[in-house]
Amino acid sequence: MKKAKVNSKRTSPQEPKSRDERRREYAMAKRRKNRIKRILTGLFFFIFLAAVAVTLCFTVFFKVSLITVEGETQYSAEEIIKSSAIKQGESLFGFSAQEVSSSITQSLPYIGKATVKRSIPDTVTIVVESAEPSCAMKTDTGYILLDKDQKVLEKTDKIDSSIPVIALSGVEKADVGFPIKLKDTQVMSSFSLVVSSAEKAGLNVTSYDLSDSSNIKIICENGEVTLKLGKVSSDTIDRKLLLASEAIKKEKENGNSVKGTFDLTYDGKAYFSPENADS
Prior knowledge:
Layout: H1 19-59, E1 66-70, H2 77-84, H3 97-107, E2 111-119, E3 123-130, E4 135-138, E5 143-146, E6 152-156, E7 165-167, E8 171-173, E9 181-182, H4 185-201, E10 205-209, E11 216-220, E12 225-230, H5 237-253, E13 260-263, E14 271-274
Parallel strand pairs: 1-3, 4-7, 7-10, 12-13
Antiparallel strand pairs: 2-3, 4-5, 5-6, 8-9, 10-11, 11-12, 13-14
Helix pairs in contact: 2-3, 4-5
């Protein structure tokens, strides 16, 4: 029986690198290290220059020399500029536009929105929009005027008869220039929905009753019509009040009395009960 030959081949030991090879490898490693060093140095220098440029923009260049006001409100341009706290000579980028806007709308409550625009090299433009009273809350000492975004516009002894009165419960805070604060967050969210939608629907609102967020009512047409809304949501409120507005208009066009109650608690339906049939 023949034995199979095993072809074994010894590997020769690796030959040592020559002096020239070692010298080339060393030179390549050194060049690689120097290249990384140059990149890092350049990056650091770029960051340094950027920091210097930003610092110069905030301290030396682009100083405010002109402040203008656009938009019609009951306040003068001087009052608006003063409430912004922006000073001529300060950096064009040295203030927060959002903080300036908040300062204006809080200190001048009949401004509903203030937009601050910067124009290089030296101009600030403040664009303002007026806030209008959407309703008034009755208190022991008078009325609190509110806009559609729940901001307190004014506290007064009397109001114009065209301003609807709103019934709210759980008032925690009502500071002029700030949104009214209520204990019930559901009432807070319902407030803006109902008031804004009523205005869009063109309803002649006499009063709102949001004392119960699950049983909201609107009195309109000089107190002759009651709209029962139940609990409202952003998905249904516009549709409900537009339906009510069209139903009232249709009854008037047909020469019918609209004195009574429209039940809008069922989405897409308006059930009318004349006053003598309404319990």
